[in-house]
C-alpha cells in the first residue's frame, strides 16, 4: 500500500508509518540477538564474546550499505512527494546498479582481509578461530543485506512500511528455527549461528524484491528505462554517500570502543556483548522512529509543506521523551534480569559488568533519542553534512573520552564516555537548528 505522508494528521501519519518500521527493525535485531542467546547458553562465554565482537564488525561494514540505501530512499521520497515518477524510476535503476556493485566489492574485500580485521579488533587469540568462522560466513551474505535494505527503503519512501515488516517477521522466525537446528541439533557452533543469519537475510531480501516487482505496477520498467544516469547519480550520491559516511562514522566509533573493551579480556567482552544487545534493543524504537521521521520530512520537503515538518518536530520530541523515560525505568529496574537472557546465572562477573554498563548508559536514553531525531530531520531536509558533523562530534568525543578515562577509572570511564558524547552532539544540533532556521 502506497501512503502519501504530506496529507492528514501529523501525529497519526507519523505514528502509523513508524510503527511497522520499529517492529521491523526489532525483528531484524533478533538475528544477532538470537545468535547471542543460543551461543551464550549452549556453547559458552567465549563463543558469546566471539559473536559479540563479530556483531560490532558486521554492523560497521554493513553500515556502509545501509547508509547508501537510506540516503537513496530520501531521494525516492522527495521525488514521490513531488509526484515526479520519471526521475524516481531513473533513481531506482541507477542506485540499484551502483549500490549492488559496492556490496559485492565489500563482501569480497571483507573476506580477503578478515585476518587483518581480527588484529585491528584486538581479538584475543583464544577467540580468533570462532570469530573468523563467524565473520567469513556473515561477509558472504552481504549482498542479501543490500537487496533487502534497497527494496525496503523503496517501499518505505513510498509510504509502505508494513510489507518490509512482514518479511522480517518471516525471516526472524526462520532464523530462530535454523539457530536451534544448526547450533543445538547439528552442533555446528558459531558457524551454524552465522549460517542461520545469512539464510534468513536472503529470505527477507528475496521476498521483498518479489513484492516490489508484483505490487508497484506504476513503477514497471521498460528495457530502455533500466539505465545508469550520471545526473541522477550525482544527485543520489550527494545523499547516499554522505549518509553512508555518517553511518560508517557512527559504527567506526562503536568499533573503536569494542576494540578498547576487548583489551580487558573475554569476560568483559562477553558482558559488553550482552549489554550492548540490550542497550541497542532498548533504544532501537527511537532510532527507527527517526528513520521514519526522515521519510516524512523528505516527502513534505518535496511537497513544500514546511508547516507539517515543524509540527512533526514538536510531536517527535514529545514522543521520544515519553518513550525513552519509560525504557530507562525498565532497564534500571531489570538490568540483572535482562543480562540473564544471554548468560547463565553462574557467570556472576559477566552479569555484574553488564549491569554496571546498563545502569549508567540507560539514564541518558532521551539524549540518544533526540540525536537520532536530529539525524532524521537533517537527512530528510537534504542537509546530510550536518548529520555527519553531529555523528563525528558524538562518536569522536565518546572514543577520545573512553581512551582517556579508562586508564584512570577503568571500565566506568568507557561507559560514561558514551552519554557525554550524546549530550554534547544534541546541544550542537539544537543550536544549529535555531540559529540556521533550516525549516522556515
Automatic annotation (TrEMBL):
Q: What does this protein do?
A: Multidrug efflux pump.
Cross-referenced Pfam families: MatE
Name the PANTHER family on file.
FMN_FAD EXPORTER YEEO-RELATED, MULTIDRUG RESISTANCE PROTEIN NORM-RELATED
Q: What is this protein called?
A: Probable multidrug resistance protein NorM
Say where the protein is mainly found: membrane
Provide the membrane topology annotation: Multi-pass membrane protein
Which cell locations does it reside in? Cell membrane
Provide this UniProt record's keywords sorted from A to Z.
Answer: Antiport, Cell membrane, Ion transport, Membrane, Transmembrane, Transmembrane helix, Transport
Entry keyword Transmembrane helix: yes
**Alphabetized CDD domains for the sequence:** MATE_yoeA_like (cd13138)
Q: Which residues cross the membrane?
A: 12-34, 54-80, 92-114, 134-153, 165-186, 192-213, 315-335, 355-376, 388-408, 414-434
The protein's matches in InterPro entries, at most eight in alphabetical order, are given as: MATE_fam, MATE_MdtK, MdtK-like
Q: Which family does it belong to?
A: Belongs to the multi antimicrobial extrusion (MATE) (TC 2.A.66.1) family.
Q: Which organism is it from?
A: Clostridium algidicarnis
Amino acid at each position: 500500500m502506497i501512503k502519501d505522508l504530506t496529507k492528514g494528521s501529523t501525529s497519526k501519519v507519523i505514528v502509523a508509518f513508524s510503527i511497522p518500521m520499529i517492529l521491523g527493525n526489532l525483528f531484524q535485531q533478533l538475528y544477532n540477538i538470537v545468535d547471542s542467546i543460543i551461543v551464550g547458553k549452549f556453547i559458552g562465554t567465549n563463543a558469546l564474546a566471539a559473536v559479540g565482537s563479530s556483531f560490532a564488525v558486521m554492523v560497521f561494514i554493513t553500515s556502509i550499505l545501509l547508509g547508501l540505501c537510506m540516503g537513496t530512499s530520501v531521494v525516492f521520497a522527495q521525488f514521490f512527494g513531488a509526484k515526479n515518477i520519471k526521475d524516481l524510476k531513473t533513481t531506482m535503476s541507477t542506485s540499484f546498479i551502483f549500490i549492488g556493485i559496492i556490496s559485492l566489492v565489500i563482501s569480497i574485500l571483507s573476506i580477503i582481509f578478515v585476518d587483518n580485521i581480527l588484529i585491528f579488533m584486538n581479538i584475543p587469540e583464544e577467540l580468533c578461530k570462532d570469530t573468523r568462522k563467524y565473520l567469513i560466513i556473515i561477509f558472504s551474505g552481504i549482498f542479501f543485506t543490500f537487496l533487502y535494505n534497497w527494496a525496503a527503503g523503496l517501499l518505505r519512501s513510498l509510504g509502505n512500511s508494513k510489507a518490509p515488516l512482514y518479511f522480517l517477521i518471516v525471516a526472524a522466525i526462520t532464523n530462530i528455527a535454523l539457530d536451534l537446528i544448526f547450533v543445538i541439533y547439528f552442533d555446528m557452533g558459531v558457524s551454524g549461528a552465522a549460517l542461520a543469519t545469512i539464510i534468513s537475510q536472503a529470505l527477507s531480501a528475496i521476498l521483498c524484491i518479489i513484492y516490489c516487482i508484483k505490487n508497484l505496477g506504476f513503477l514497471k520498467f521498460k528495457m530502455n528505462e533500466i539505465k545508469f544516469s550520471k545526473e541522477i547519480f550525482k544527485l543520489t550520491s550527494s545523499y547516499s554517500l554522505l549518509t553512508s559516511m555518517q553511518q560508517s562514522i557512527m559504527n567506526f566509533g562503536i568499533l573503536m570502543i569494542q576494540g578498547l573493551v576487548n583489551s580487558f579480556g573475554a569476560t568483559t567482552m562477553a558482558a559488553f556483548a550482552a549489554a550492548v544487545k540490550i542497550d541497542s534493543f532498548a533504544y532501537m524504537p527511537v532510532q527507527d522512529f527517526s528513520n521514519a521521521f526522515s521519510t516524512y520530512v523528505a516527502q513534505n520537503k518535496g511537497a513544500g509543506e514546511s508547516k507539517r515538518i515543524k509540527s512533526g518536530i514538536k510531536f517527535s520530541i514529545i514522543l521520544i521523551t515519553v518513550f525513552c523515560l519509560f525504557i530507562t525505568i525498565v532497564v534500571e529496574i531489570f538490568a540483572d534480569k535482562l543480562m540473564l537472557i544471554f548468560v547463565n546465572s553462574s557467570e556472576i562477573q559477566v552479569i555484574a559488568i553488564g549491569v554496571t554498563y546498563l545502569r549508567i548508559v540507560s539514564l541518558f536514553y532521551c539524549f540518544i533519542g533526540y540525536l537520532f531525531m536530529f539525524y532524521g530531520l537533517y537527512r530528510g531536509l537534504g542537509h546530510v553534512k550536518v548529520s555527519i558533523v553531529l555523528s563525528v562530534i558524538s562518536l569522536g568525543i565518546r572514543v577520545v573520552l573512553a581512551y582517556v578515562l579508562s586508564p584512570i577509572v577503568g571500565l566506568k570511564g568507557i561507559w560514561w564516555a558514551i552519554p557525554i558524547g550524546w549530550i554534547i552532539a544534541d546541544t550542537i544540533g539544537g543550536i544549529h537548528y535555531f540559529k540556521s532556521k533550516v525549516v522556515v
